Please model this.
Amino acid sequence: MRPFRYARASDPADAVRQAGVAQAKYLGGGTNLVDLMRETIEGPELLVDVTSLPAAIEEQADGSVLIGAAARNTAVAEHRTIRTRYPMLSRAIVAGASPQIRNMATVGGNLLQRTRCSYFYDEAGSSCNKRHPGQGCDAVAGFNRNHAILGASPACVAVHPSDMCVALAALDAEVRLRGSGGARSLPLTDLHRLPGDRPDIETMLEPGELITGVALPALPFAARSTYRKVRDRSSYAFALVSVAAALDIEHGQVRDVRIALGGVAHKPWRAWRAEEMLRGRKADEAAFTAAAQAELADAEPLSQNGFKIELARRTIVAVLGELSGDAA
Ligand SMILES: Cc1cc2nc3c(=O)[nH]c(=O)nc-3n(C[C@H](O)[C@H](O)[C@H](O)COP(=O)(O)OP(=O)(O)OC[C@H]3O[C@@H](n4cnc5c(N)ncnc54)[C@H](O)[C@@H]3O)c2cc1C
Ligand code: SF4
Model:
């Protein structure tokens, strides 16, 4: 591990000011960043601890809910408003990691956690364009069972590991940011990038920009929502495929719907095409199947992960069936 300095931020402006010098990184719970520092994949000169910044979870006058970026994952998952108004978010968080890690992990850190591609972690023995642009990608012809089927590139086929982000993508969450130029917001669906030829650039954040919070729109029908994660073992494993969905049905027809997928792409994958197909359609298994197939039509399997296409199709259909009260 390389030597580094540690500083504690007193407020968001102070955090941005302190991080504006040297090679700085913000420190949330440290459950991902410290591991990467130990492996010498990350080597900041300065850690700016942002865990004492705003962490409240508050309903706003317009019905939206603002979550401070320093809120611990457990606090969000257990919050009464989140459990009742946005159950998919609560379930997504609880589906991730372990209770101890969720107690430490912050919302800001969860959003920016890095891929779990095993070659990315193998600094000594593997080629990885995300670690060293231009070096090559050992996953393309290697062990790629857990990797992407949508939106990948020859440069990188890694997937985004977060469960929480999949629910936030489905909920149309807005990420609140603060940088040296002031404050701004970004839809969660625009925060993370597809790899293209620069997989080392993972988000649309400006250098030194701080995540200050996440806003959930009112979205009343999100009270009828869920998250399903399919993985190799029932706890302590990342998603092979996951689905976050909310469904609004009136007189047997889909009035509105939100769907996002995890474990399939370099970013949480919002299923815009499936949603578009479902609005106004009869809420039945045939419509759910057609929408899932349309969403996955562009999927491109690697040598070991073709099973994810059928798994994603079935999981979308099963989740929508569950939400519609159907026995799909
Ligand atoms: C064994 C294990 C199993 C896991 N399983 C799962 C799982 O199944 N599902 C899942 O979703 N996750 C899983 N995780 C990952 C876990 O959710 C993340 O490690 C955690 O959410 C990161 O949050 P943190 O606050 O500890 O971030 P940190 O490690 O502190 O930081 C992560 C990144 O975010 C940046 N950052 C932190 N806060 C801010 C901010 N406010 N503004 C800007 N940048 C910021 C840091 O600079 C760093 O780059 C697992 C982790 C471990 C160790
Ligand atoms: S998939 Fe991406 S993270 Fe994994 S080895 Fe290839 S370039 Fe690196």
